[in-house]
């Protein structure tokens, strides 16, 4: 909703208005360089993130422009009537909806209340061989009393890179090991990739609903998200995306073609090829989050967008956090033509990824039964997916519909339109149950009557009772909506 006189401006909006007013009064003249992000942060006593959002807003209004390796400048020819113009609200941006705060609140609730973790984004760690990997790490630490920092520098441990490249090659995806950059989880890979292809104020196309880590990255970097309708079985609407590309400049596209969180679909190969072809035609890079690629329920590992990339425009991101161990936060990027830039950004952002976790994971991949572990986890998730789907159908109010996950460990639940997922979230928490409210997966409140459920944890009498209780609460919410 556009801001009114009664709606307080956010801090970055106030800063943007102050700078815009200074430009209007001639304090800053056309073509003049303004304070750097760090300088403005110190001058105004605000965070760097706030300054980035303010500068991005001013770029959108036509007041500022960025020049590579030079900084921010007042536009030489400001758009007429730009003064005091409110930012356009047609396309929702991640900064307009505090998705990050909602996600953090959900995670804290799980920890603080010892709640049933249906709302958790993380898999149950118990089936994972983290104890075995810890043994490797301890042995490595005993052999090496100290590490040379040079050993930690990007692109990462050579043996780990070799093992990752081998897994892709064994599954029909030949990759150049020199393209791989090790990161602190897939989240860093996504953030580095986005930094490499877009700048503050740029527009990035995302699926709708989309995994909130995508929205976090866009929000943090002061960019704008435009949401593209997404089919629950076939993925992003390619025709709708083509229409958007025809109307406005899109700096990048971010998708999860395999076992998308929250919908759980596996995008068909022909649609993956069609998506890559569309974006290649327009020279638009695509960031592929493939963090669930090992958790497929079928007989064959799915293809990735990387299989169909001929121009190096696919920046492929993945990790071991969802399939092997989350505690070590080992991820990677295969950024195509942007590889040098991603490696540089990795060095500038976090300097390096610690060596011991990298070597421990590499040792496990080389010596232990990773494939045997994955087969066991896939069977477990497939079974628990069916159980939870059947229980939701049994216990939830009439009109409830669920997704049909083909991999991963989350179920997307559409409740009757009268149910508000935030009210249900609070009521469930009071009963010791967490859910992922649909508000987390969009900047437009488009999924206010949806929730996401995690089925990776063991199915027990307690979890069945919790799901039954959740269904009762959803039923009460639906009846309240009818009376309203």
UniProtKB/TrEMBL annotation:
Signal peptide: none annotated. Keywords: Aminotransferase, DNA-binding, Pyridoxal phosphate, Transcription, Transcription regulation, Transferase. The keyword Plastid does not apply. One of its GO terms (molecular function) is DNA binding. It holds the Pfam family Aminotran_1_2. Residues 9-77 form the HTH gntR-type domain. In the C-terminal section; belongs to the class-I pyridoxal-phosphate-dependent aminotransferase family. This is GntR family transcriptional regulator. The lineage of its organism: Bacteria, Pseudomonadati, Pseudomonadota, Betaproteobacteria, Burkholderiales.
